[in-house]
C-alpha cells in the first residue's frame, strides 16, 4: 500500500541521512572548525569559521514532525488551477526555486510559504550572482515574508566566497 511504501521510505531516509537533524546547517550539527567538502568540487573543502558559524541557527527552526505539508514547484503546471486553498491549507509549505507569488499567481498557487529553495543557477541567472546589485534580490525576497531560504551554499566554492 501507499502507507507501507511511505513508511519504508521514511525509515530508509532516517537511516541514511537523519534529515530531522541534518537537513540544514545548525550550530548543533556543524561546530566551528569542522571541514565541509563541496559536493560539486570534490577536491576542495571549507572550514567553518566564526563568521560562518554565527550565521547558523542554534537548532533546526522547524517544529518536527511536520503534520501536513505541501511541496510546490514553479514549472507552471498550476496555472489556471485555482488550487490556492489546497496549497495553503497545510501547516508547512515548501516552494522550489524562488517562484513568483505576485497577485496574478496567488489564486492558483497560494501565498503561504515556510521554506523556499534557491538553486545557484537561479541566483546567477536572475540576480547576476549578487555581484552588481543586491537590491533586486532583497526586493524579490520580500514576497516570502518570514520564510527560510534554503540554498546549497556548500556545493561549490562560489557559494562561500565573499
Automatic annotation (TrEMBL):
InterPro entries linked: Glyco_trans_29, Glycosyltr_29_Sialyltrsf, GT29-like_sf
Record carries keyword Disulfide bond: no
UniProt keywords, alphabetically: Glycoprotein, Glycosyltransferase, Golgi apparatus, Membrane, Signal-anchor, Transferase, Transmembrane, Transmembrane helix
GO molecular function: sialyltransferase activity
GO CC annotation: Golgi membrane
Annotated metabolic or biological route of this protein: Protein modification; protein glycosylation
Topology class, membrane: Single-pass type II membrane protein
One Pfam family named in its UniProt record: Glyco_transf_29
Location relative to the cell: Golgi apparatus membrane
Entry keyword Nucleotidyltransferase: no
Family to which this protein belongs: Belongs to the glycosyltransferase 29 family.
Protein name: Alpha-2,8-sialyltransferase
Organism: Mus musculus (Mouse)
Lineage: Eukaryota, Metazoa, Chordata, Craniata, Vertebrata
Amino acid at each position: 500500500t501507499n502507507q507501507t511504501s511511505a513508511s519504508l521510505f521514511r525509515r530508509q531516509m532516517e537511516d541514511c541521512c537523519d534529515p530531522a537533524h541534518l537537513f540544514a546547517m545548525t550550530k548543533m550539527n556543524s561546530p566551528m572548525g569542522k571541514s565541509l567538502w563541496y559536493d560539486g568540487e570534490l577536491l576542495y573543502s571549507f572550514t567553518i569559521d566564526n563568521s560562518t558559524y554565527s550565521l547558523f541557527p542554534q537548532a533546526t527552526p522547524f517544529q518536527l514532525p511536520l503534520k501536513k505539508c505541501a511541496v510546490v514547484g514553479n514549472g507552471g503546471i498550476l496555472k489556471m488551477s485555482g488550487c490556492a486553498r489546497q496549497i495553503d491549507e497545510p501547516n508547512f509549505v515548501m516552494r522550489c526555486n524562488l517562484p513568483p507569488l505576485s497577485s496574478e499567481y496567488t489564486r492558483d498557487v497560494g501565498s503561504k510559504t515556510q521554506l523556499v529553495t534557491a538553486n545557484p543557477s537561479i541566483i546567477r541567472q536572475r540576480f547576476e550572482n549578487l555581484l552588481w546589485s543586491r537590491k533586486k534580490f532583497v526586493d524579490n525576497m520580500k514576497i516570502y515574508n518570514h520564510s527560510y531560504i534554503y540554498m546549497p551554499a556548500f556545493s561549490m566554492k562560489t557559494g562561500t566566497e565573499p
